[in-house]
Amino acid sequence: MDCDNTRGLLHAYVDGELDLVRSLEIEQHLQGCAACLQMWKNQQMLKASFAEATLYVKPPPHLQARIQASIRGAGKANPAPRTIPWRLFAFAAALVLAVALVPMLARVLSPSSSKSDSLAQEVVASHVRSLMANHLSDVASSDQHTVKPWFNGKLDFSPPVEDLSAQGFPLIGGRLDYLNDRPVAALIYQRRKHFINLFIWPTTDNSAVAAQMETLQGYHVYHWTQPGMTFWATSDLNTTELQQFVQLAQSEGH
Questions:
Q1: Using an 8 Å Cβ cutoff, are 171 and 142 in contact?
Q2: How many CB atoms lie within 10 A of CB 60?
Q3: How far apart are alpha carbons 183 and 55 in whole angstroms?
Q4: How do residues 23-66 score in pLDDT, each as one tens digit?
Q5: Do residues 130 and 184 make contact, with C-beta atoms less than 8 angstroms apart?
């Protein structure tokens, strides 16, 4: 996040209108940029000053009566409004109702899609948070026989842990995380200067579902399931190499 992007989003950040990922990126930038930090402080002071009671003037008691009298006089001078045909009114009401119901029906008919989108946002936020907080791993090791036993007693399942160093994706550690309302395993892999978070937790679905990809705020997210386990991988690595990683993780996880 550079200065131009930060300043363009600063008003929305002050008003609390940004999502978690963008907010974290701006907070990180403010920690290292005195100029943008001062702009943020100025906006905070401006927002606080607008909330002061001294800016508001109480109208005199007779003003309301004068306004009401003016409205009554204008109403008498204007001709009677044209009557809207009942059928036209009913059609307009039905059209408004239909437009309002479309998004609701879409959510009802595809609840899994909405849940998947929300979970993808969680996955990206956890990935970004681990990078910004410099907390990629609780156990730093490239040895799968060190990382896998570390999860014993900390989770109610045993995650599959594979070292993909020979294929160019070395394992660098693991940590506990929290997604989908439960503790999950996070395995961290590296490709040059890019980090990959692979989140794993159990599922009651015993079928295998092919990997699906989406991009959120510049981060690529892959999701797939294997019998008894669900997997989410995310990184800013290019899609070709990240897809290669996913294919390796799928084949090694069988």
A1: yes
A2: 9
A3: 49
A4: 888 888 888 888 888 888 887 777 776 665 555 566 777 777 77
A5: no
What digits encode the pLDDT tens for the residues 118-151? 899 999 999 999 998 788 999 999 999 999 999 9
* Ranges of H-type helices in 51-197: 61-77, 86-109, 111-132, 144-150
Question: Which tokens go with 83?
Answer: 């009557």
Residue 37 has phi, psi (to 5 degrees) of -65, -40
Burial of 71 (0-12, 13-18, 19+ CB in 10 A): exposed
DSSP single-letter state for residue 134 = T
Spell out the residues 6+ positions from residue 29 whose beta carbon is closer than 8 angstroms to its own.
1, 2, 3, 6, 36
d(Cα 57, Cα 182) in Å, to the nearest integer? 52
pTM for this prediction: 0.59
Structure tokens at 184: 């999950």
**DSSP-derived pairing of the beta strands 182-191 and 171-179:** antiparallel
Determine the Cα–Cα distance for residues 131 and 222; give it in Å rounded to an integer.
18
| CB 26 within 8 Å of CB 18 | yes
Residue where the block lists tokens 């943020």: 40
